[in-house]
Amino acid sequence: MAPTFVRTPPPWFRIVAILFLLWGAAGVFAFYSQVTMGPAALAAMGEVDRRFYAALPRWFNWIYGIATWGGLLGSVALLIGRRWAAGLYAASLLAVAIQFGWVFTATDLIAAKGAAATVPFPLVIFAIALWQLAVARHGTARGWLR
């Protein structure tokens, strides 16, 4: 049997994967906080936020879960050197696009709170999701992921 050579990723790859893992953990925490939000937390919100949360369709939490858990599991896959990290990151990216696409087109959140308060962080989330997918694809192309 011929020997198999595994290409070792450079140190930056592992550092980025760890940062992605931390980002994913924060996302899952935010997801958990939203889906377990009780009446006291809702009462503490402003009127606009209460209306927003009341208007969320049931499928929204599923999409939010795919976005966050897909990113976290993709980061775990990246850390253990698995090429299926790209698939998980792609699912996460698609879920992020659906999630924020719905928020910005089906709600009045921008009109109520202003674009400066509502748009920047979702853009950062989308950019990081794109970066995660790009890093996973790069790792696969370089042979760092198997």
* Secondary structure: number of strands: 0
Query: What spatial form do the alpha-carbon principal axes imply?
Result: elongated
Stretches where pLDDT is under 50 for at least 5 consecutive residues are: none
Biggest beta sheet summary:
none
Rounded mean pLDDT is 94
H/E element order: HHHHHHHH
> What is the number of helical segments per DSSP (H or I, 4+ residues)?
8
Q: What gyration radius follows from the Cα positions, in whole Å?
A: 18 Å
Helical amount: over 70%
Counting structural domains, the number is: 1
Output the structural class: mainly alpha
Taking the alpha carbons of the first and last residues, their distance comes to 19 Å
Percent of sequence in beta strands: under 5%
Protein name: Sugar transporter
Keywords: Membrane, Transmembrane, Transmembrane helix
Organism: Sphingomonas hankookensis
Transmembrane segments: 12-32, 59-80, 87-105, 117-136
Could you explain how this protein is built, in words?
It is a single chain. The chain has 146 residues and is mostly helical. The protein has one domain. Helix content is 79%, strand content 0%. The chain has helices at residues 11-35, 39-44, 47-55, 58-79, 85-106, 109-113, 115-118, 120-141. Helix 4 (58-79) packs antiparallel against helix 5 (85-106) and helix 4 runs parallel beside helix 8. The protein is elongated and about 55 Å long. It starts with 10 loop residues before the first helix and ends in a 5-residue tail after the last helix. The mean pLDDT is 94.
